[in-house]
Amino acid sequence: MKKRNISMEEISKLISENNKKKPTQKDMDELFDVLREEGLTEPIKKKQDKSNEDQVARPFEPEPQL
User: Do residues 4 and 37 touch, judged by C-beta distance below 8 A?
Assistant: First the structure.
């Protein structure tokens, strides 16, 4: 992916535009992709990995039989 030069003014403008509408998951993914490219966020695990951890962390409890 090509690194983009983006000013803080442009980021502020995009954020204020985005604040006017309800962001979709795709919008959020794109925002974090840009922030990661600019080195403004800590690297995070993919969302899929996190859901697997959540499943492993909780013991399986069967539904109570009524």
Answer: yes
Q: What is the three-class DSSP state of 53?
A: helix
Regarding pTM above 0.70, the answer is no
Q: Which pLDDT band, with edges at 50, 70 and 90, does 59 fall under? A: low
Say which residue the tokens 């993919």 belong to: 46
d(CA 51, CA 40): 24
**Which of 26, 27, 30, 42 has its CA nearest to residue 1?**
30
Query: How confident is the model over 35-49, as a mean pLDDT?
Result: 66
To the nearest 10°, report the CA torsion of 55, 40, 29, 21.
120
Amino acid at 54: D
Task: Tell me 16's DSSP state.
Answer: H
Whose tokens are 């499943």? That residue is: 55
